[in-house]
Amino acid sequence: MTHLFQAFDITKRFGGLVALDKTSFHVDEGEILGLIGPNGAGKSTCFNVVTGTLRPTSGRIELMGQDITDAPPFVTARLGMARTFQHTTVFPQLTVRENIEAACYLRAKAGLAPALLRTPGYRADQASLDAAVDVILRTVDLKQVEGSRAKGLPYGYLRRLGIGIALGTDPVLLLMDEPAAGLNPTESLEYAKLARRLRDSGITIVIVEHDMKVIMNLCDRIVVLNYGKKIAEGRPDEIRSNPLVIESYLGKSRDETEADHA
Amino acid sequence: MLRISLALAALLVIAVAPFVVTDPYFQQVMVIFGIYAIFAVALDILFGFLGVHSFGHAAFFGGGAYVCGILMETYGVSFGLALVAATLFSAVLGFLIAIPALRMRGIYFAITTLFCAEVVRLVVTNVPDVTRGVMGLTTPMPSFPGVPYGYETAVFYYITFAILVLACLLLERFRVSPLGRSFIAIRENEQLAASVGVPVFRIKFYAFGVSGGLAGLAGAIYAPFIGIISPDLLSPTYSAMGMLMVVVGGFGTIYGAIFGAFMFSVVTEFFRAAAELRMIIFSGILIVAIIFMPRGVLTPLVEYLRRPSGKDKAGLVTRDEAA
Q1: Alpha-carbon torsion, ordered A138, A142, A143, A148, to 10 deg
Q2: B174, B185, B316 ranked by CB distance to A102: nearest
Q3: Under 8 Å CB-to-CB from A219, ≥6 apart: which residues?
Q4: Rounded Cα distance, A82 and B139, in Å
Q5: In principle, which of A233, B221, B288, B319 could form an S-S bond with A152, CB 3.0–4.6 Å?
């Protein structure tokens, strides 16, 4: 079968530094894929290359069979790929509702002239947009603060708003960059629930994370990066017992190190 | 409701003002106010809505004025046609300046727009055969058929304010449309806007054309109304005036741009009595306004009027409000 998303041998060099070295992976429809690795493993580079923020030095990226290797972010978004950012990234001066409305740019069908003339078609389009915004606000549980300005909202709320903004594009594939960073345990659980709910509603999810705990419980499949290379791929239990993964995350035990030197 | 009644009140004031203010001098001041307001609204499209800080908008205002002036004076083109031509010219000029400028960021963008405008000023200064150079170009008063002598100012007044009202209406409708929200999204966070599918460059490019065209239209009314224009109109002084009008009134708000224009046309007239001290007093007021009301003179008042009613307050109190 063809995969929803595929990366073939993507390499990214920054001068002499090889941040990503011929990494290949795929994402299947309806799964939650975890992309993990220790700090500096190339996770963020991989994320930025995949979403079009950075162009790969070499390699090829496909979304639903379409080549998106050189597509900038606004094009990949149009093709159904949305992303969240590592830091809380929202439109600070807008209210929560306006944040989502601004993110629904791709859903709007009516053009400029109907908007200026307020044609019936435009009004109908607005009504359906309003309904879509309501659905998103409920999905990320922010309906009760829709009128508050984003700037100054608590951190957990901003995280959810970030996800809501990505949902505004009506994505097929949602990539999340360290979504659990800075969340307390309760919020982490809430977040995992939300991710599963999104998957059940038909959105395929890729999570980049260095926190193993979140990933192990949530993901169907995991890809492990280290020094820009894929070192393992498989179900969480397979990953947990993979010696290469244990080594890169926990380091070798003293005995093993001594044995290597012997 | 409040918005509609305020808008209707404003329309009524605009409609009857020339009958109340019959002094010809003050009628002229009101036309200048309207022209400045169109200019400020044009600049606010880029400055306030899109967060694109153009430092060279005098190029569009002055460019429109010169195109209108040259067409009417040298080629005898009618006022209406000259207005259209000037608007189109400035829109194209906007696109042309946008191509290099939008590839720059921050201060480099500002410098590029500033110097593109300087190039236009130098061209106008140095082709005296067409523009009369530093001597200035006289522009004939357009003939308004059926309008008795002495009422031209009133005609200018209604033309100016009709354009201003139409521009504001369209801009307000645009602001709340999905495309308008994408402008605000770009202003707030360009990278995030791109990530939700907003074609940032293309939108900025179009906005430059529309903003330039509207500024050119303001300039095109200005030229025949004043009767003589010089390359000074293209100098950074006028670009700065535009920016100040937008910032002092409150950027990103249409009423703010109009209020800024009011400050720079009508309010400065009140200081005429102070003679040489006029601009010093006015500058002092601007400095105080920017220090104490950085989001615009009118913004605190408007936010007070729009404060949430009791039912909305049930929501979370944000840090912003609590502070």
Answers
A1: -160
A2: B185
A3: A32, A33, A34, A207, A236
A4: 56
A5: B319
Rounded to whole angstroms, the Cα distance separating B68 from B79 reads 8
Name A234's Cβ contacts closer than 8 Å, sequence gap at least 6: A221, A222, A242
User: For residue A104, which residues of chain B lie inside 8 Å, CB to CB?
Assistant: 178
Per-residue model confidence as pLDDT tens digits over B95-125 = 999 999 999 888 899 899 999 999 999 998 8
- Residues 6 or more apart whose CB falls under 8 angstroms from that of B292 comprise none
Adjacency order of strands within the sheet including A204-209: A81-83, A173-177, A204-209, A32-36, A221-226, A229-234
- Domain coordinates of chain A in residue numbers? 1-80+172-262, 92-170
Please indicate whether, in this complex, the C-beta atoms of A102 and B193 are within 8 angstroms of each other.
Answer: yes
* Distance between A106 CA and the closest CA of chain B, angstroms: 6
Element (H, E) at B143: none
Q: What is the CATH number of domain A1-80+172-262?
A: 3.40.50.300
Which residue shows structure tokens 């049930």?
Answer: B314
Whether the Cβ atoms of residue B159 and residue B221 lie closer than 8 Å to each other: yes
- Complex ipTM: 0.85
Q: Which of A153, A139, A166, A155 is nearest to A84 (CA)?
A: A166
Contact check, Cβ <8 Å, B189/A118: no
User: How far off is chain B from A177, nearest CA to CA, in Å?
Assistant: 13
The alpha carbon of residue B172 is apart from the nearest alpha carbon of chain A, in Å, by 9
